[in-house]
# Entry
Amino acid sequence: MQHSFFINLTHAGSLVFGSLILLWALSLKLKDASLVDIFWGFGFLLVAVACFMLSQDKTPYTTILILLPILWGARLTLYLAKRNIGHGEDKRYIAMRKRAERKGLSENNWRLRTLFTIFFGQGLLIMIISTPILFASAHASNSPDISTGPLVYVGVIVWSIGFLFEAIGDAQLSRFMKKNSNFKGNEADKPVLNLGLWKYTRHPNYFGNACIWWGIWLVACNSNIGWITILSPLLMTLLLTRISGRDLLERQMKKRTAYAIYTKKTNSFIPWFPKK
# Structure
């Protein structure tokens, strides 16, 4: 079992980090470190494909386990590519580069640093969060008679709820941003999306993303050791709420008058009916 897990880990890791090096080289040419954002979902897709190709027996359980991150990764990659390509480097990376330059680091040296901090940092997160796929597919490869038990069905349901929340939330946000793209007023007066799924949670896409990884973990728990990979959904939820998701975004959004009112009526993460 241990040997099979490390085969998954090394092959998937080589594929992910090799792809990140190529993407980093492209980012140098385009001077756009934010290309790495598009890779986030695609990296998990690569891990799932690698594990599936390494599986000795393509059982129904293995197919379900692998298909969930592939579907999610493909949708997220296409969404981010459509949203980001052609709009230049994201302002977050521009600000990081300018801070580095103020400290005496040249742009070329900063671009080199991004390989190890931003690109490889994302690769490391992908591999850690992918542990349910790596472990459970290895176990299924060694136990081809493993069946799809109740945890698989519950996991698929949780994943499906998450997938719908993320996809619908992203679509509603895209339409809202397009509709208000020509807003010329002050930042504090910008309109706020509070309809659709956004009426019940301030971050339906982040909530959906968390559900997706709790669902994948539940599917992995169908194997004997899947439960030990609980760090995966915990870390993803932490990223989405405290580190790079909700809290980071809301520090800027709360400057808007309408958003301050919105936060008093709407749950920050778990969907619920708005307060009167």
